[in-house]
Design brief:
The chain is α/β, with parallel strands linked by helices. It folds into 3 domains: about 180 residues, Beta Polymerase, domain 2; about 170 residues, Rossmann fold (3-Layer(aba) Sandwich), CATH 3.40.50; about 80 residues, no CATH class. Helix 6 crosses helix 12. The two termini are about 25 Å apart. About 40% of the residues are buried.
């Protein structure tokens, strides 16, 4: 199988090394355009995420692929090619397919089961199609990879249960409140973790949000963005890597998801006492070295309010004094509680790994079987069998209409006729096997197999 992958990921190198070889966005497009222009590989695809940069390629050439890839990346980055290549891995044939299927199934992710990678595989495929570097084999490979990822997601619990603290906080709120649509959220802090939690709360229907921050201007920016539905959706398990930002063009042709309209306003930390009276859920995530929510400042306002108050403190050091959790109708959870939830969910995901690996094994087996069936020699043998079956069927049907002497000549006559009819296709297939690119050979063989129902003939033998 003339399929290979060369890559670097979180298993083999730290981020400061990986970022030097990142091919996100325009660099990836430039690389694929060069591949297409220079005909270095028959087909190619770049998969670049926060945790990996991989080049999948189809080639019969003996050229040093790693040397070409690294030298081209060096030109794109205007840097010297690396001398240490030990951080790169190289898989060929079925091993390359297996690697991609495991990536698509989120089995090779830093957080096993995360959801974002399947969309990244799909975006990489789209990029290769647009660059005209995805041929017949790459198309088949990527469809199989995407199917594998969908099967893992739907047939296992690998991606279920929050594996990030921000999402665990949101899940906890969903357990405490059966309906979040009429709840008011007080978000204390305007950093990345707080924003992630806020955006995840919008999905189940939270309609009112108060953003409190030491810097009012930053709180106002986040409140405006939340109300306007601006910014990218953040996957529950995969925060964006600052070293390798996503290219906004990756989503250019995707329809914008429908967003829940919310009311959001900003306050400074001095307004927390008043805001907490109307809040149902408080999520704290500041960088303050001292507690922001204290008994002295908030015991009175909390006692004046009615109904249950859930406080989730996801800050380290803690933002909330523990004594507040002793007040009536106050439920306080901190990082220790959420870490235990995340740990249990990650352990559940680990328990699902064998089931997910079994799906990958099955899909790799199917892909390899398909690839082997598209080889010229196997197709020639099936083509000869198909013609022989048709020949014998016609002799059985019409042989009785011939005199005995003439009937004896039907067998050699039809054999010779079929042989002459098959001569051209067989020569064509043998030439493809020797001279054509892998993609051209597979495409031609696939067409012939479908024309003569050779897959059905092969299935009858199974």
């Amino acid at each position: 199988m003339d399929l290979s992958v060369i890559g670097i990921n979180h298993h083999t190198a730290p981020v400061e090394v990986r970022e030097r070889f990142a091919l996100a966005g325009e660099p990836g497009e430039q690389f694929l355009r060069a591949v297409h222009r220079e005909s270095v590989f028959d087909e190619a695809l770049v998969l670049d995420t926060c945790n990996r940069t991989e080049v999948y390629f189809v080639s019969r050439s003996d050229r040093d692929a790693l040397e070409y890839i690294l030298s081209h990346v060096a030109r794109l980055k205007d840097a010297a090619p690396p001398t240490d290549t030990s951080v790169f891995y190289h898989h060929d044939g079925p091993a390359a397919a297996r690697h991609l299927f495991r990536v698509a199934g989120a089995l090779d992710s830093q957080i096993v089961g995360e959801h974002e990678v399947l969309g990244q595989v799909r975006a990489a495929y789209r990029q290769a199609v647009q660059a005209r570097t995805a041929g017949f084999l790459m198309n088949k490979l990527l469809h199989a990879a995407l199917r594998t990822g969908k099967r893992v997601r739907s047939e296992t619990d690998l991606g279920r249960g929050s594996a990030s603290v921000a999402q665990a906080a949101v899940d906890l709120a969903g357990q405490v409140f059966t309906d979040l649509a009429d709840k008011t959220v007080l978000l204390i802090g305007a950093g990345q973790t707080a924003e992630t939690a806020a955006r995840r709360l919008i999905a189940p229907g939270v309609g009112r949000m108060i953003v409190a921050n030491r810097t009012l201007e930053r709180a106002e920016r986040l409140a405006e963005a939340l109300a306007a539905g601006q910014g990218d959706d953040i996957d529950e398990d995969q925060a964006r890597c600052p070293a390798m930002p996503a290219d906004p063009r990756d989503q250019a042709d995707a329809p914008a998801p429908a967003r829940q309209a919310i009311r959001a306003r900003a306050i400074d930390l001095g307004g927390i006492g008043e805001a907490i009276v109307e809040a149902d859920l408080v999520i704290c995530s500041t960088g303050s070295p001292e507690p922001v929510l204290t008994m002295q400042s908030l015991a009175g306002p909390i006692r004046r309010r009615s109904g249950l108050l859930l406080i989730v403190d996801i800050a380290v050091p803690r933002d909330v004094e523990a004594e507040l959790g002793d007040l009536p109708n106050v439920f306080l959870y901190n990082m220790n509680d959420l870490d235990r939830v995340v740990a249990r969910n990650i352990e559940r995901r680990r328990e699902e790994i064998p089931r997910a690996e079994a799906i990958v094994d099955h899909e790799v087996e199917q892909f390899v079987t398909w690839y082997d069936s598209r080889q010229a020699a196997a197709t020639i043998a099936l083509l000869q069998r198909r013609f022989d079956m048709l020949r014998q069927a016609q002799i059985t049907r019409y042989g009785g209409k011939f005199a005995d002497g003439a009937r004896d000549q039907l067998d050699p006559f039809t054999k010779g006729l079929c042989s002459k009819m098959l001569h051209g296709p067989i020569v064509f297939l043998k030439a493809l096997a020797a001279e054509a690119s892998t993609g051209d050979q597979l495409a031609a063989v696939d067409t012939i197999r479908r024309m003569f129902d050779l897959d059905e003939l092969e299935e009858d033998d199974a």
